[in-house]
Amino acid sequence: MAPIHKECDYLVIGGGSGGLASARRASGMYGAKAIAIENKRLGGTCVNVGCVPKKITWSAASIAETIKEAKAYGFSVDTTAPFDWPMFKKKRDAYIKRLNGIYEKNLKNDKVEYLHGTASFVDTHTVKVLLDDNTEVSIKAKKILVAVGGHPAPAPNIPGGKLGINSDGFFDLETQPKKVAIVGAGYIAVEFAGMFHALGTETHLFIRHDTFLRTFDPMVSEKVTAEYERQGVHLHKSSSQSKVEDLGDGRLRVHYTDSNGAGSVEVDTLLWAIGRTPELEKLNLGVTNVAQNAQGHIKTDDYQNTNVENIFALGDVCDRGYELTPVAIAAGRRLADRLFGGQADAHLDYNLIPSVVFSHPTVGSIGLTEPQARKQYGDENIKVYNSSFTAMYYSMMEAEEKGPTSYKVICAGKEEKVVGMHILGIASDEILQGFGVAIKMGATKADFDRCVAIHPTSAEEIVTMK
């Protein structure tokens, strides 16, 4: 069968949040003829195997914690059965499927043509798409956006390594593991470990160093690591894995070494959370000569330009360092404004982007860490304000049941401009959003001080630091 030929102003490869936001704005707001291509489910990582189902699961874990803590407040709460993982997964899956449908409806509303298939470059202006029915579509586009995102890094090359699942596989688990081993020290591993533990799974977390979340401020890394140990997560420090055995009854034996020496642990599930890589394997990107960095990410400038004039990239596939859905959406919309809306300088400012880790407790971070600030401005030009305390929520609990709250505000120069803020504790995810606006506007410590505290809250500590 001869291929179908199409032409368009804007071809977006990848149906994740960033690509769809850019395609919809280009077509719906500016009238560009746009085509979007996706070979999996619309919404990308965030909607299907990331932020959305993760936050739903985190909410379930938080409810489990609340039930446990209710006794301290005088409640007698008896659960009549264990957490119903199969029921929960069924409802979560149904919600995600509904979101997929909403994304497709929104494309139609903004007159973006949607093709479900796998794209590969023929040249810098031409892409062929193999549809689900094996029909081939050839698309000639004036401008092409690569927004294909990433996927979990493969399991390490050790005997039996492929017996483990990755972060995508977490959302496919039909039943709750009684015992799980998670390998990784980034936010994905830490979030999964916290959720599993709170929901009653015996959780073993294997990390390569003495702390996890090591790209965050040291306060965050050290205190959240200590809190996981306090809660009872089995933390294997300075660890490596040598072999995974299939025990034949649905269980695995993971052989490892850690700070205590050699050992093994039998688990129901092994989850590798050891990073993510760009999803470029099927794209035939080499034919375009688009430049990539050593990790395989597409090199882009502040305007999402690649080294090829009509090819652009954004989101997790590019080298900007912020693998966050709102970043991809914002970059995609601004790119459409620039390419089709006549706004020549439209681009995303990648400075002071807030981010959150849905750990237990939650973590919020914006701007420079303390080591980064000292390196950039010099020790003599940095002043750091700290506050560690017990949130009032824990006032009714025994000492061993109290969780930590710690805040750090990093200021630079004589005017003490806030260049970094790092918080951990109850509601840190919600607290950070408002402070993020202030910091993005250039707030100083004096601005914080002038804001009257809301009492009694944890957040008031941020505006009363001395």
UniProtKB/TrEMBL annotation:
It catalyses: 2 glutathione + NADP(+) = glutathione disulfide + NADPH + H(+). The keyword NADP applies. Its main location: cytoplasm. InterPro entries: FAD/NAD-bd_sf, FAD/NAD-binding_dom, FAD/NAD-linked_Rdtase_dimer_sf, Glutathione_Rdtase_euk/bac, GSHR/TRXR-like, Pyr_nuc-diS_OxRdtase, Pyr_nucl-diS_OxRdtase_dimer, Pyr_OxRdtase_I_AS. FAD binds at residues 55, 316. Keywords: Cytoplasm, Disulfide bond, FAD, Flavoprotein, NAD, NADP, Nucleotide-binding, Oxidoreductase, Redox-active center. It is an enzyme of class 1 (oxidoreductase). Residues 9-332 form the FAD/NAD(P)-binding domain. Its EC number is 1.8.1.7. Belongs to the class-I pyridine nucleotide-disulfide oxidoreductase family. This is Glutathione reductase. The gene is GLR1_1.
